[in-house]
Design brief:
Residues 1-156 form the RapZ-like N-terminal domain. GO terms for molecular function: ATP binding; GTP binding. Residues 165-283 form the RapZ C-terminal domain. The protein is α/β, with parallel strands linked by helices and 294 residues long. The chain has two domains: 2-159, 3-Layer(aba) Sandwich (Rossmann fold), CATH 3.40.50; 165-288, no CATH class. It has eleven helices and nine strands. Strands 2-3-1-4-5 form a five-stranded parallel β-sheet, sandwiched between helices. Helix 8 (207-214) crosses helix 10 (257-271). The chain is globular, with a radius of gyration of 21 Å.
């Protein structure tokens, strides 16, 4: 039986995540009071295999009932029920925008400012976020992208015990560190192509920048040490049951150095037959915000 507890911030995408899980054949229950989790788990066990994939959506809509969540999790652990926690997160800016677009009130601030409700909710969810097996930051994800992530994590291939999905993510520090990153590496020590006129217009996806970044002696030494550490960590993460690993590579704007390095890491992982994907979160942010003209 695969037992997933879906939680996270209001407006972060729990509804879409639940719909994706339903499409994958999960039996989904929304807003179940945490005090009922043990009885529900026992009922599923007694179904004799008729219910094998379950997703429970638990969040602060449960009011005072939410505070009993950890007691229920202790019960599940003591009775050897295996469960996973999926936590949906997003930046304050994005959450405020989503609430305003839908004209919804925040459940923790129905008559006050949305940002106040978000802050209160973050504080209440901090402990459960720390316990989460998987965190997905939906700030810059389209619905299609979120569905793809859910499918990769909880589709049929995730039944394999040693399955690990690795995402290599480039980003710009000035746009914030990805909240769902497991490993974060700073490559701002490499000379910045932004300040070289003939390279500025290119991104790390293109050969002139890629060659410039990768031919540095410092870059080659960094890559050797980094890949040695990553290949050491991956088997140990798998051993501990981790199903998703996000490796974030950051430079100033997320367009040149981090993109080239992230691509090199991704290519190395693929050569080693790891299940890896690549994302460039901020590759066009500087251009879109008018930092320079191409």
């Amino acid at each position: 039986m695969r037992f997933i507890i879906v939680t996270g911030l209001s407006g972060a995408g729990k509804t879409e995540a639940t719909r994706s899980l339903e499409d994958l054949g999960y039996f989904c229950v929304d807003n179940l009071p945490p005090t009922l989790i043990p009885k529900f788990a026992e009922a599923c066990i007694q179904s004799e295999g008729k219910i094998e994939k379950i997703a429970l959506v638990i969040d602060i809509r449960g009011g005072t009932f939410f505070d009993s969540l950890f007691q229920s999790l202790i019960y599940l652990k003591e009775h050897e029920f295996k469960y996973e926690i999926l936590f949906l997160d997003a930046s304050d800016e994005v959450l405020v925008k989503r609430f305003k677009e839908t004209r919804r009130r925040h459940p923790l601030a129905p008559d006050g400012r949305i940002i106040t409700g978000i802050t209160n909710e973050r504080n209440r969810l901090r402990e459960v976020r720390d316990r989460a097996d998987t965190i997905i930051d939906t700030s810059k994800l389209a619905i299609r992208d979120l569905r793809d992530k859910i499918t990769n994590l909880y589709g049929d291939n995730s039944k394999i015990e040693r399955h690990l999905s690795i995402t290599v993510l480039s980003f710009g520090f000035k746009y914030g560190i990805p909240v769902d990153a497991d490993l974060v590496f700073d490559v701002r020590f490499i000379q910045n192509p932004f300040y070289i006129p003939e390279l500025k217009k290119f991104s790390g996806m293109e050969e002139p920048v890629r060659k410039f970044v990768m031919e540095h002696e410092e870059t080659q030494g960094f890559m050797e040490k980094l890949m040695d550490m990553i290949t050491f960590l991956i088997p140990n993460y798998i051993k501990e049951g981790k199903r998703q690993l996000i490796i974030a590579i950051g430079c100033t704007g997320g367009r040149h150095r981090s993109v080239a390095i992230a691509n090199a890491i991704y290519e190395s992982l693929v050569k080693e037959n790891y299940k890896a994907s690549i994302e460039h979160r901020d590759i066009n942010e500087d251009v879109n915000r008018g930092a320079y003209k191409l």
